[in-house]
Write a structure and sequence with these properties.
Elements (H helix, E strand, L loop, with lengths): L1 H24 L10 H7 L3 H23 L2 H4 L6 H12 L9 H18 L10 H22 L4 H28 L5 H6 L1 H23 L2 H22 L11 H19 L2 H7 L14
Length: 295
């Protein structure tokens, strides 16, 4: 399916952005967390701007993926982003392929493939009525408020995990709004630019990006990335089923789906805990001839 190809291209673009953005965000002092000054500081870093460029490329690929496939199929594929991040780091950071936790990557990939095969997302519509959107936005706002208010008084890994989940919800909402907006292209460019979901996509995307920067700045990839990738997949499936009427297999099929989900979580956690993931995302140390770093 063409949507799978576009989803994989989106994952590759996001993986590139993650490496660049984490390197920049990890160098920002903790006292700028959850302040606009975090963004004003990051925007002066070329490596962060390069990451934002890749975010834009990823958004274009994502729009193509959502236009050609159900959101409950497209978004879970982005789980592959974490293993792709490590693969990319062997090129950008000049690390050895042997440093990649191949078993964890294999568990994540097999879990994703098995989970999608068992769930078999299908059907649904490309548009949702405004009444459905109102309920979805209220529920999303309430969820985000609880998660963020819980994260604010925390520090370190706990804050990073919760903000990663909040960012995941923001990105899932962005994808749902984008799918609805892209569907309006059938009515012509004028209708596309008149739909409120297009501007909702921009607003939700900026909010999710802000939350992600704070998650990356608050703690390590071990805390934020599994919550981001798995949370995005599960919340997106929920949006697909409740907003667009997409269908996934239920009944006894839920058993292998839950097993696949457990494989994905375990694989993501152990991938994020790998020494290579820590080296890829940690703040760069003082210059040393023996220390790999971004050129």
């Amino acid at each position: 399916m063409i949507c799978v190809l576009f989803a994989l291209l989106t994952s590759a673009s996001n993986a590139t952005a993650a490496v660049l953005q984490r390197r920049a965000a990890a160098q920002v002092p903790e006292d700028k967390s959850l302040h606009l000054s975090l963004i004003t500081t990051l925007v002066r870093k070329k490596i962060w701007l390069a990451g934002i460029g890749m975010v834009i490329v990823a958004a274009l690929f994502q729009a193509a993926a959502l236009a050609t496939g159900p959101i409950a199929l497209v978004q879970p594929i982005f789980i592959i982003e974490l293993p792709l991040t490590l693969l990319l780091s062997t090129v950008v950071m000049r690390y050895r392929l042997s440093q990649i936790p191949w078993l964890a990557v294999a568990v994540t990939t097999v879990g994703l493939a098995a989970g999608l095969a068992c769930a078999n997302p299908s059907g649904g519509t490309d548009r949702a009525p405004n009444a459905t959107w109102v309920l979805a936005l209220i529920a999303t706002g309430a969820f985000e408020a609880v998660i963020i208010s819980t994260a604010v008084p925390l520090r370190g890994e706990a804050r990073a995990a919760l903000l990663g989940l909040a960012a995941a919800c923001g990105y899932s909402l962005t994808a749902a709004l984008l799918k609805n907006a892209v569907a309006e292209l059938d009515q012509g460019p004028a209708e596309f630019f008149r739909t409120w979901q297009l501007y909702g996509t921009a607003a939700a995307g900026v909010g999710a990006l802000f939350l992600l920067q704070n998650a990356l700045q608050a703690g390590t990839l071990v805390a934020s990335q599994p919550m981001l990738t798995v949370g995005d997949a599960l919340i997106s499936i929920s949006y697909g089923v409740t907003i667009f009427g997409e269908e996934i297999r239920a009944g006894w099929w839920l058993v292998p789906q839950l097993i696949a989900l457990a494989m994905i979580i375990v694989g993501c956690v152990y991938t994020a805990k790998s020494p290579l993931a820590a080296a890829t995302t940690a703040p760069p140390p003082l210059a040393s001839p023996a220390t790999p770093r971004v050129q």
